[in-house]
Amino acid sequence: MRVRNNQNFNIKLMQQHGVGGLGSITIVAGSVLELEDELWKPFASAAKNDLECGNLTIVKAVALTAEEEAKRNADALAAAEKLIKDAKAPKSK
């Protein structure tokens, strides 16, 4: 996993509770941090908001397992089916 800090300040991430490992990581301002996928996964949820608002950018994503890929595909399919169902539903006044 490679992640870039797009800000001019350091970003510190704390890992999920109950997971052994590094505890926290600091991504230095303007730099790219590279971690093995297994080291990154405990920090993924902590990085979510920074990724969504553009503070961090994923340069190289974590490889998904077959189960994770299947779940992601099933979730995307369910979301698409819901959109189609909602579009076809009669509008109430």
Quick overview of this protein structure:
This protein is of the alpha+beta class. It is 39% helix and 22% strand. The strands form two sheets. A three-stranded antiparallel sheet has the order 4-1-5. A two-stranded antiparallel sheet has the order 2-3.
How would you describe this structure in keywords?
two-stranded antiparallel ribbon, 3 helices, about 40% helix, about 90 residues, about 20% strand, elongated
How would you portray this structure in words?
With 93 residues, the chain is an alpha+beta fold. The chain has a domain at 2-64. It is 39% helix and 22% strand. It is built from 3 helices and 5 strands; from the N terminus they run ββββααβα. The strands form 2 sheets. It has a 3-stranded antiparallel sheet. The chain has a two-stranded antiparallel sheet with strand order 2-3. The radius of gyration is 18 Å and the shape is elongated. The mean pLDDT is 87.
Radius of gyration: 18 Å
Strand content: 15-25%
State the strand order across the main sheet. 4-1-5
Could you tell me the mean pLDDT? Answer: 87
The number of distinct β-strands equals 5
Unreliable stretches, pLDDT < 50, 5 or more residues?
none
Helix content: 25-40%
Count every helix, treating DSSP H or I runs of 4 or more residues as helices.
3
- What is the first-to-last residue Cα distance? 49 Å
Largest sheet: 3 strands, antiparallel
Classify the secondary structure makeup into a structural class. Answer: alpha+beta
Order of helices and strands: EEEEHHEH
Question: What general outline do the C-alpha atoms trace?
Answer: elongated
